Amino acid sequence: MVSKALILAILLRSLALLLPQTFFQPDEFYQAYEPAFFQAFGSGFLTWEWRDLPASGGSGGWWSTTVASGRLRGWLWPGVFYLIYRLLAALGLEGTEWIVLAPRIVGVLVAALTDYSTYLLATKVLGSGSASGALLLSLTSIFNAHLLPRALSTSPETLLTTIALCLYPLPAPESGSIPEDSGNAHSPKTRQVSQIDYGAADRIEGVESCQPPSTNLVAAAFVAALSICIRPTMLVFWGYLHLESTIVAWRTGGLRSATLMTIMTLAGGLSMLAISTLVDWLFVGRLVFPVATFFHQNILLNIAASYGATGLAYHVTQSLPILLFPIWYWWGQGFAVALLPRSILPCALADLDAPKPLSTLARSITFALGVLSLSPHSEWRFIHPLLPQLLLFALPALHKTYQPTGMSASSFLQSLRQYCRVPRKAFYLITLAPIAPYLYLNVFHGAAQVGAVSSLRRGEFGPVTGVVALMPCHSTPWASHAGAAIPGWFLTCEPPLANRPDRQTEEEMFYSSPVSYLNRDFPRSPSAAEASGRRLEDAPSHVLLFGELLRRSDNDGAQETVAHVLGRLGYHERAHLWNGFDVAQDDHRRRGGVRVWTRDEPEERGEGQPPRIEL
């Protein structure tokens, strides 16, 4: 029988399909949809991570050819979308809206399953009384709602990490108890209802409650390895957790128990690694190890630093506050109690519930955050796989201040609040605070970057014979939304591979002198090395750009702007699409809305232009 919690999660997450698809980061397209589309239909664009990397010296041995010059990304996650595209092609639906909608359904399922796995993990770590509260926190988390349905590799990584924790043999939580007032042998000991911890109460022996997920170390290692093969960053989390669990097994069961635990972990992990290697071999045609290549490029060669440097405190000062909005107060209490010795805690926190598995997770998360903070380049989403566990730390503090209202729970919201065991003010803050930012981010912000390309596929801006996107690199999806039949190119920004730190990207070449480029080289791409493979023989029918670019001129004192040059080349603005508030754009070059410029045919230039669209 399907769990009601899972059904609820699927229904709520499915509402995202009613909203327009918005843009968050290029990886949601170029690390999933685009490579899958390329494999399925043979057209589109593969970023540098999906091509053989250039050799950076060495003897040309096994390490050099398989790892150093291998592939940075594996095909497990894009393979899901490859199968969807092939199915759509078999059904003759590749030219319909299903080409965009079907992959989004995968995101809905990933998000809903993550919510449900968080529900199960709370049952395992805190007891069944906390499961509904965990589901509430997962469903109302704006970070979950905004990112989980996207095709970012962190989305399946978050789901698989949570499932693996549900299967992993974490320490069993201690039995709960209801502290009693002092009394004597002849008078009953009592406790006020308002003083009961309604989270720990369900762990009292004899109380009927839902059973936590069964433990299976081999399956847990298999699923954890799957998440690592998709994205290796959580290896530090699992490494610490396994080390601590092995030490505990050694102390309680001796060397035999610790050895058996390690063997079972290796059995599950290596089995998944073998499957992942086989999948990559089928797609690539040769032996590659993307996990090893990932560490080689990002740690040994420090390629990640080319995308911007972040400080050691980045995850503490930025990632955690954003991920945990708006439950900071309750989370801080719960995490402190789970991590720190009771002897140094203030009296107000001394009796807060912190079962053993929660403390184990606190230490594992702290270690993982410490190691990940050493990376020269970090992003908020890099620690998204830790969010389901992080949410659990807020529940003990919420349950501690919760008071039931008995039969007076007449309204739906009041009944829901009591079912989740969350105090009244906290409940309304948690449920209402994320609504406005969620709607803005998922209805308006970045919507034009995706919508413009989909509109080209539908022919809303006239017949398309070629498209050029003069935007910061990867600002829009490409073939997965434009369709296989539309030729064109966009500016790229590949990092300095093969020890070439002085190499300029196409993006840098163009933005250094956009007017000169348009006068001299357009419609070729700015990079001469790639011009032969990405050249349009004729001028494109459509040019995509942001409004900010139109006012730009070269830095040589010339007054001619990009808008003037485009007009002289026979283009006019066909559409101005609002892309959200300019002040909210993380790159000033993405301000001014998305503009679609189309080229006038010679016979049209004396007859007036097609109507202009402004949204």
Automatic annotation (TrEMBL):
A GO CC term attached to the entry: endoplasmic reticulum membrane
A single MF term (Gene Ontology): alpha-1,2-mannosyltransferase activity
Signal peptide: 1-20
Membrane-spanning ranges: 217-241, 253-275, 426-448
Record EC number: 2.4.1.-
Domain of life of the source: Eukaryota
InterPro entries hit by this protein: GPI_mannosylTrfase
Region (Disordered) location: 594-615
Feature: compositional bias, Basic and acidic residues: 597-615
Topology in membrane: Multi-pass membrane protein
Pfam families recorded: Glyco_transf_22
Protein's GO biological process: GPI anchor biosynthetic process
EC top class named in words: transferase
Main location: endoplasmic reticulum
Compartment annotation: Endoplasmic reticulum membrane
Keyword match Transmembrane helix: yes
Record keywords, A-Z: Endoplasmic reticulum, Glycosyltransferase, Membrane, Signal, Transferase, Transmembrane, Transmembrane helix
Protein family: Belongs to the glycosyltransferase 22 family. PIGB subfamily.
Function description: Mannosyltransferase involved in glycosylphosphatidylinositol-anchor biosynthesis. Transfers the third mannose to Man2-GlcN-acyl-PI during GPI precursor assembly.
Protein name as catalogued: Mannosyltransferase
Highest classification ranks of the organism: Eukaryota, Fungi, Dikarya, Basidiomycota, Agaricomycotina
Gene that this polypeptide is encoded by: GPI10
